[in-house]
Amino acid sequence: MSARDVVITGIGLVSSLGEGTEQHWQQLTLDQPKPILDRDRFAPYTIHPLPQLDWGLQIPKRSDQRQMETWQRLGTYAAGLALDDAGIKGDEALCATMDLIVAAGGGERDVEVDTSILEQSQTSSDTGVLLNERLTTDLRPTLFLAQLSNLLAGNISIVHKVTGSSRTFMGEEGAGVSAIETAAARIRAGQSTHALVGAAFQTEHPDMLLGYELGGYLNRGDWASVWDRSGAQGGGIVSGSGGAFLVLESREHAQARGRKIYATLGRVAAAGAAPDEAQIAHMLAELDLSGPHLAISGATGVEAITRAERSALDKAGLIARGFTNLTGHLKEAQFPFAVALAALAVSHGAAPSPTEPSEAPFSGTLDMAVATSFGYRRYGGVAALGRA
Amino acid sequence: MTSTVDHLGRPIVAVTGLGVVTSLGVGKADNWAALTAGKSGIHPITRFPTDHLRTTISGMVDFLPSSGKGNSALTEELAATAAEEAIAQAGLGKDFGGPLFLASPPIEMEWPDRFALYKGDETEEGYARLLSVARARNDRSLFESSQFGHIADALSARFGTRGLPITLSTACASGATAIQLGVEAIRRGESDRALAIGADGSASAEALIRFSLLSALSTHNDAPEKASRPFSRDRDGFVLAEGGAALVLESLESARARGAKVLGILQGCGERADDFHRTRSKPDASPAIAAVKAALEDAGLGIDGIDYVNAHGTSTPENDKMEHLSLSTVFGERIKSIPVSSNKSMIGHTLSAAGAVEAVFSFLTMQEGVLPPTINYDQPDPAIDLDVVPNVKRNADVGAILSNSFGFGGQNACLALAREPN
């Protein structure tokens, strides 16, 4: 134990399972947790939709809500939950010195404008001129700000007054890994005392589905477990809307505030490029695990990487929980979500229920949990969460 | 030989390689010659039609093989071209061996690709058609061009950087943030060296229109080379531009141990977020002031320690006013004797690349002892009392520089750069 250990003191979660740590833990520990699915709205694709949220609870000003689309609202909302949970919300001094790292993709485009331009392009002799004419008249000026990657962080600064620093990392699942790895490394080195880190993903928009489907990554047809999507149609991903933010602090900083600690964030190991099973095994070995442990896995369902991860987990004696079965794939938020659930499990000293029959039951007390996320195309990371 | 740790006992971060591409050309030599001659790279847009557009000029990079082939391809080429130059100067080989921090623009599938997909079928409409054609085609190159992590992955493979490369955006401060992340990693002792790149090849019709709708762009279309007028009374917006820059950052100890030529020191970094507004700065400029102060403090420098300011100087009415307020607040009366010039008067605003491009030019400024001018300074703004190095370069002995970057979303990042300690 050291004063500069990185500890988790706040968790903000939103997914199809609900919002907040309690609702999530309750859903995850049901005898047979069930995914909440919407098979119709984006057929042939199935998605895990957002729950009902009252944005005003975390974004009090309607004018702020209007400046954002759902992705930014969702992230700002989840960030607010984490700040509340850590007892930092509204504490001007703590917020003004708090570091912020957000993992982000882009925001939502205007489907109506896009669709109408696409339709008109079929009869246009000069699509370049058409584009200029339509975009200059039809685009809402402020929509750009709802689309900019760094403006989720910008909105968090505006709404929650977190202003110590603001960095946005991009790059699908890997961005979520880097965000947590960097925030933790800065705290460990004394470059930062407390940080808000996380991401959100809003899948209920056709352009967000297109980001996967350009590479044929989405699943079609009946839902199946991430561990068993090889027989399903399509590329293996069933996406979801959700967000996960964490408050990371140095142990010293958290103790001085007298805050409850969920878990200690230990080593984080990250992979560049696209890791194979041997590299995953090597990363797990870097975590210095001993004894049987739980792995809160962000496995995507994309066949090769999911099989490699499961095999490496099994060989390392890690009992897997593929939470993506219940939340859907949350892209940039995948690793922060995994770390959040692993921290929750450690703080409860218990494992979530199996999400499907191939996941073994976990018996005994839980002292340590591993969080994983390996990207559908590239990158990945693992982290060890230990007792407070 | 002096110490290799700084005033706080941290490893001093040296710069051993620099590379740059802007609308003025490829490489340090061409860029520096143009920049010190007061030459502008701003020109009429030819990449796409300009009918119906309020702004028809830019500082696009139109001379690379990937120019006009989309954001992802051009950004990657700008980054790779700059990195080649920087790594060669540093005398490092194919296997860079340290982490990569890439500042690059957000990625979206672009209109020509959307139109092409839409032509692929007639059975469905709107996005349903895009999705079914995308699925049927499974075009890997189009897919990769839509992935935020792709460019850094390609660069990492090409240059042999280590670990999971970080791609980041802090809007117009991104280039400075990439450098800051590299400095922090070296100070933490994670690596002896880091590659920091800022690149932006995202100038498309849609990008231009988005900024135009926010009234951020200059509409001085008649004389493109005179459109960017930082600190002038008649400035009316920034000029959208492209570019790329790379810096090899290295602990001073490691640089000296391998006998590398030290080009300068990354002495301090400061940042602060603004919670006031999505595009406007707090009226009292307090976040920018705090970022400048944080950079000086991190560098262990007082206000007398800075000899020149490489301004963010976008040429928007708002930025230049706010930047002046922040500098005059931090430096007080002394600001009148510190030259402050804006590279953007010549190269326009290279957005995600700007912080890195301007850091490279700042190191050249120290190395050559020449201040690049702020061109187009014909009508001084009486409210901005600064020595902007008007219109003509100036010889000066410069030991330390403050380089400012401010961006949408309340991003403020400042770097303090210095010569190698004797």
TrEMBL record, chain A:
Keyword Transferase belongs to the record: yes
SUPFAM superfamilies associated with the record: Thiolase-like
UniProt record, GO biological process: fatty acid biosynthetic process
Superkingdom classification of source: Bacteria
InterPro entries to which the protein is assigned, alphabetical: Beta-ketoacyl_synthase, Ketoacyl_synth_N, Thiolase-like
Membrane-traversing stretches: none
Keyword Cytoplasm among UniProt keywords: no
Domain (Beta-ketoacyl synthase-like N-terminal): residue spans on this chain: 4-254
Keywords, sorted A to Z: Transferase
GO MF terms held by the record: 3-oxoacyl-[acyl-carrier-protein] synthase activity
NCBIfam families named in the record: PRK06519.1
PANTHER family registered for this protein in UniProt: 3-OXOACYL-[ACYL-CARRIER-PROTEIN] SYNTHASE, MITOCHONDRIAL, POLYKETIDE SYNTHASE-RELATED
Name this polypeptide is given: Beta-ketoacyl-ACP synthase II
Organism (species): Tianweitania populi
Taxonomic path: Bacteria, Pseudomonadati, Pseudomonadota, Alphaproteobacteria, Hyphomicrobiales
Automatic annotation (TrEMBL), chain B:
Leader peptide range in chain numbering: none
Pathway the protein acts in: Lipid metabolism; fatty acid biosynthesis
Domain of life: Bacteria
Family matches, as Pfam families: ketoacyl-synt, Ketoacyl-synt_C
Residue ranges annotated for the Ketosynthase family 3 (KS3) domain, each copy included: 10-419
GO molecular function: 3-oxoacyl-[acyl-carrier-protein] synthase activity
SMART domains: PKS_KS
Keywords: Transferase
Gene3D superfamilies named among the record's database cross-references: 3.40.47.10
Alphabetical list of PANTHER family matching this protein: 3-OXOACYL-[ACYL-CARRIER-PROTEIN] SYNTHASE, MITOCHONDRIAL, POLYKETIDE SYNTHASE-RELATED
GO cellular component, one term: cytosol
Similarity comment: Belongs to the thiolase-like superfamily. Beta-ketoacyl-ACP synthases family.
UniProt name for this protein: Beta-ketoacyl-ACP synthase II
GO terms, biological process: fatty acid biosynthetic process
